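Dear colleague,

Thank you for sharing your sequence with our group. We've completed the structure prediction you requested, and as agreed, I am returning the results in plain text so they can be pasted directly into your records. Please verify that the sequence below matches your submission; if there's any discrepancy, let me know and we will rerun it promptly.
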Amino acid sequence: MFASLRAKIGELTRRLSREETQAGPGMTDRAMALLRGEVVLDERKIEKILGEFELALLESDVALDVAEEIVSDLKRRLLGKKFRRSELEQAIRASLEMTLRKILDMPGVDLEEAIRSKEDKPFVILFVGVNGTGKTTTIAKLAKRLLDRGFSCVIAAGDTYRAGAIEQLERHASRLGVKLIKHARGSDPAAVAYDAIEHARARGKDVVLIDTAGRMETNVNLLEEMKKIARVAKPDLVLFVGDALTGNAAVEQAERFHGAVEIDGVILTKADADAKGGSAISIAHAIRRPVLFLGTGQSYDDLIEFSADWLIREVLG
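Please find the predicted structure tokens below.
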């Protein structure tokens, strides 16, 4: 992720570090700065460079309002500041790191601690998102992660519309050794969720993972049905599953779903195939909710925990 943005950051910081611009107009001031090996970034040059950087952010699927905030914050941190030439690139990178931390600074979700601390089991997780994002596979991956950490799980096949959805989850549940609660195709998905929760409660299971039908964020009827599932299930956690490759479309989807059922966190799939990566920053900024995991492949173990530190390392290299 962020391959092109990393390259652009390197290019722009090198260009800034070559600048010999002094804020004062006089040649004496300029000469003195050069003798001291210092650079003072003036508005003319920094506007040009940061304009190019904003374009690089947009090309990396960072949403416009987020790109503008990053550039504005960077300008505030750099404009008129005096740097030694040898330290300029590191200073710019440090400023960018502080800017990204400011955007990504939000409470995270310690999923394992949340599950352990809930006295009235089960802990209920509702998965929402549009068609084709890999939601069903993501549920299986998270189930595997929880099983590996000693939690017992039940999966609810709440996508009762898509052909093969129940069968797909059934295969995953069988491989993982997890109980699947299902109804006939076309059944009320809220009833499936309710039965799964009651089954888990009766048998002392830790977690219920509820699949839902993929729905476009513009389909009012399906969004209303999703609200009904949430009312019945009363989930402890609502996770939006988005496709990293869709870029800013994933941001718009997250905002719509967040307006319908309050999202607590995000899982981005296909992150291994996404060279741009900006949607991770943009979604977190748009709905002020953390990205919790990234899907990075097809196997059950290809789910990595997301953190601001990881993203910043990816951006800065």
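Summary note from our side: The longest strand covers residues 237-243.

Kind regards,
the structure core
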